């Protein structure tokens, strides 16, 4: 871990532009090539940087924002590769940690109909330890919690919860994406829900898929699901619906923001591009919380975030497909 926390670069920020801190996993995705969904038959794999919070950090930085990644990788070649990818995308990695544990690995194979075979080998991501000095940087900034592996135990889970409390005390704008992975929680869905709800309660912005909204609420309609989630404490709820756009719910009203028509190639990372673009735009608001109930403003911001997700879905890979400002301006 880099101990000099002054390495967070504040130079060049406007008087009100916010930093975005993304907390969670960074791992290696080994994607099987040229075969169906049976990993036992896979012979060739492509190494890719993975981890939803890391994708979000790259999405913010690629649009010109100031993002920081807080997570843990191994003291090995894979860890070097992952931090190098983030550095190449101008994400500040000064707050990342290294562990003697091996870097976390995921092996995945997809058939043409989307059927998936998945093997997860967990290592360093769970070793993230708490550093109270990091929280000093949260003051009135934006802190994003991407929860794919963060509730699976190890020091990370406790650290994650402590940073949530710190972000709340620092009056940071809190963003939460449960990043539900069925392969990791099969048969333990109720435990996952209970671990998510404290984050929903403190979140200013929640980003859900339709499956996640139904799972966390126990409801089977959008209106009932968001009512329940607002009752838990969520302020702004966005539910991404793929080609249908995004369903938005505030304390006052509900509405849908359409996306743009595309031919999707790979939806991996599209949701991360969406929330990364949304947080980038909130970071550029002088008073971000004033936007949380402003339908007109939210429609503009979410429309742009929908475009970011659409651009990403038109190409293979997550980080390499994330859009720039120029990409979005051309749509």
Descriptive report:
With 331 residues, the chain is of the alpha/beta class. It has a single domain, classed as UDP-N-acetylmuramoyl-L-alanine:D-glutamate ligase, CATH 3.40.1190. It has eleven helices and 14 strands. The strands form three sheets. It has an eight-stranded mixed sheet with strand order 4-1-9-10-11-12-13-14, sandwiched between helices. It has a four-stranded mixed sheet with strand order 3-2-7-8. Strand 9, helix 4 and strand 10 form a beta-alpha-beta unit. Helix 6 packs across helix 8. The longest helix has 19 residues. The chain is globular, with a radius of gyration of 18 Å. The relative contact order is 0.13. The N terminus is likely disordered.
Concise account of the structure shown:
By secondary structure, this protein is α/β, with parallel strands linked by helices. It is built from eleven helices and 14 strands. It has one domain: Ribokinase (UDP-N-acetylmuramoyl-L-alanine:D-glutamate ligase, 3-Layer(aba) Sandwich).
List unreliable stretches of 5+ residues.
1-13
Mean pLDDT, to the nearest integer, reads 91
Task: Write down the CATH topology.
Answer: UDP-N-acetylmuramoyl-L-alanine:D-glutamate ligase
Number of domains: 1
CATH architecture: 3-Layer(aba) Sandwich
Number of strands: 14
The total count of helices amounts to 11
Shape: globular
